[in-house]
């Protein structure tokens, strides 16, 4: 059930009515409805994997209580290790078994060793990477004394399966979502209205921008004999497609949560205006970056703290290798993560990794230096996306090589108006987000700055464009992660 589909629209309208007008007298009853709705939402995809979700939730719930109640540090560690083995083992099996088998077969063939191993027919459970990280952070935080275990099983299960953000993030922490589940929610009109604006903007980015880019970018990436400028166009369009698709999903998730009285984690902060790669990752997929910082980078950097900058470099590389591997069971993601980690090295050596500087504060345009930094960061991110999109490292390498093969007679394959339309929509998105870069989302301030007639004209045009291009119903890219 996709956010940009009619079944979800019907589901959410009915759920919203029941949530605020039928089950609104008790927070416990509302939580039961939330849990039931979340399980229904997940079962729409494949009800068989609902049992895996329930089992993982129940095991983590019991292990968290066991960690908290144990007075023996060794027992606490055993409970934690049991949870790690269960959760990480489940993730490894469903997501990476075929990766390990295929890699072993390749290595064996290069060593001229015959093997009868074959890859397995394993279906990846929807959202397993996201809810597994949510469960892992819960166990770590209970073990480290940062939180107390959740004793209300309905609240805990709802926290794990909260349907707006469960299948593709944001990866909310216990401290963010559980307190809101424990207290009575009130319908606040201004909050709900802003949630609708954020949903509209997310839907616009997904349907009008991402789903229009996908036709051209898919054709270019799936045609190995293309070269020159057409490959650069394909790389640019895929980069914008990925951003509009994933940030659009996050905007909608946040908006739907706000309609239900929740404030969940912000996941994007206009990353294409970042001036270096460290700032980019503080603005892109923020909940994952924060998770990896707390549970991977910090422990590793503490272990290597006596090695100075080299210790920081090792910690960053380990973190980004895990980040790449989290994204997918392919070497392309591992290399992609490693390259992003390597871009931190100059910043670490110059002592600028953690420096934060707002871009063009109070100014309509960036300075020349800021523009060069933004452009350089964007170009690196854009060209690294060849690895993110390619089916193998060898195909990515071939793509990079063919970029430098120019021909005056290179065909465009699509009419010029298709490229112009995509460029127009992308330019509109970037200009609007630049002017609203100090806001939570691009439409947050529109009600305060535009007269009513223009504001509703803008809404109407956005809805019209969404309806015009809504026939594709392309799945969100990050659903496969």
Word description of this protein:
The protein is 69% helix and 0% strand. It is mostly helical and 481 residues long. The protein folds into two domains: 6-185, no CATH class; 191-275 and 357-480, no CATH class.
Short summary:
By secondary structure, the chain is an all-alpha fold. The chain is built from 19 helices and no strands. It has helices spanning 6-22, 27-46, 50-69, 73-110, 128-143, 153-161, 174-182, 189-221, 229-259, 277-283, 286-303, 308-327, 331-342, 344-349, 368-389, 393-403, 416-435, 446-449, 452-468.
What is the tally of beta strands? 0
| Order of H and E elements | HHHHHHHHHHHHHHHHHHH
Question: What characterizes the major β-sheet?
Answer: none
- Rg (C-alpha, Å): 23 Å
Distance between the termini: 16 Å
The helix fraction, in percent, is: 55-70%
Strand content: under 5%
Average predicted confidence as pLDDT: 92
Shape: globular
Q: How many structural domains are formed by the residues?
A: 2
Structural class: mainly alpha
Low-confidence segments, ≥5 residues, pLDDT <50? none
Number of helices: 19
Layout of strands and helices, then pairs:
Blueprint: H1 6-22, H2 27-46, H3 50-69, H4 73-110, H5 128-143, H6 153-161, H7 174-182, H8 189-221, H9 229-259, H10 277-283, H11 286-303, H12 308-327, H13 331-342, H14 344-349, H15 368-389, H16 393-403, H17 416-435, H18 446-449, H19 452-468
Helix pairs in contact: 1-2, 2-6, 3-4, 3-5, 3-6, 4-5, 6-7, 8-9, 8-17, 8-19, 9-15, 11-12, 12-13, 13-15
